Amino acid sequence: MKIICIGRNYLEHAKEMGKPITKDPIFFLKPDSSLIAKRQPFYFPNFSKNIHYEVELVYKIKKVGKSIDPVFSKDYYDKVGLGIDFTARDLQEKCKLNGHPWEIAKSFDQSALVSEDFLEVKSLKDLNFSLLKNGETVQKSNANQMIFSIDEIISYVSNFMTLKIGDLIFTGTPSGVGSVKIGDKLEGFINNESIFSLNIK
Ligand code: MG
Predict the structure, then answer these.
(1) How far, in Å, from the CA of 56 to the mean position of ligand 1?
(2) Half-sphere exposure of residue 139, counting CA atoms within 13 Å on the CB side?
(3) Concatenated DSSP letters for 41-54?
(4) pTM of the full predicted structure?
(5) Residue 75 C-alpha to ligand 1 middle, in angstroms?
(6) What is the Å distance from ligand 1's center to 85 Cα?
(7) How far is the CA of 62 from the centre of ligand 1 (A)?
(8) What is the mean pLDDT of residues 150-164?
(9) What pLDDT is stored for residue 6 in this prediction?
(10) Would residue 168 count as lying in a domain?
(11) What is the CA(187)–ligand 1 centre distance, in A?
């Protein structure tokens, strides 16, 4: 199983990072070892001083596919969950500065939270989602605000990599990213339904 993550997929987030929109999606991978185990907290790692949350809609692949035409992308998923793409922002800045790959900033242990539940909802492309930190809304958007839709993402990524059953696609984060500290509590919502809750320890 692989975890594919899209970068810069919401205009306001690209702006807050000071980055331009790209012609094609940008993607990177997290290994399965990056997943936070069920009902476990996030333990603040010793190699970073600035861990950011990025809440993202996550789609689960249900069929093997390669070079998928976007018209057929919808045959490859039918459920959506919510996750956090934890990012060691200080390490990421260093990687960017030196032109190095991002793995130490994006693919470390516990860098992927994925909700236990995946929803089968009527419209998978028009969904409100949000993240609360200590009870306050810090990120909020709708799937219809993505620059590249899930169908376009599936088509693009499958030109380079075969998609397999169970693969997860993180679809990028809206604006409002920020840091976490020990003692914080994060709670994610899809359409006002609480879908995960996570403590930072
Ligand atoms: Mg992200």
Answers:
(1) 7
(2) 32
(3) -BPPPTT-S-EEE-
(4) 0.96
(5) 24
(6) 5
(7) 22
(8) 98
(9) 97
(10) yes
(11) 17
Residue-level pLDDT at 122: 73
Amino acid identity, position 34:
S
> Does residue 125 register a pLDDT over 90?
no
Note down the domain range covering 166. Answer: 3-35+46-127+141-180
54 Cα: distance to centroid of ligand 1 (angstroms): 5
Q: How far is the CA of 170 from the centre of ligand 1 (A)?
A: 7
Q: Which two structure tokens, joined as six digits, stand for 139?
A: 């990120």
Q: Could you give the number of structural domains in the chain? A: 1
Return the pLDDT at 14.
87
In the chain, % helix, strand, coil (3-state, to 5) comes to 20, 35, 45
Give the pLDDT mean for 71-81.
95
pLDDT value at 38 more than 80: yes
* CATH code (residue 65): 3.90.850.10
- How many residues are there in the chain? 201
CB 167, CB 61: distance < 8 Å: yes
Cα 67 to middle of ligand 1, angstroms: 24
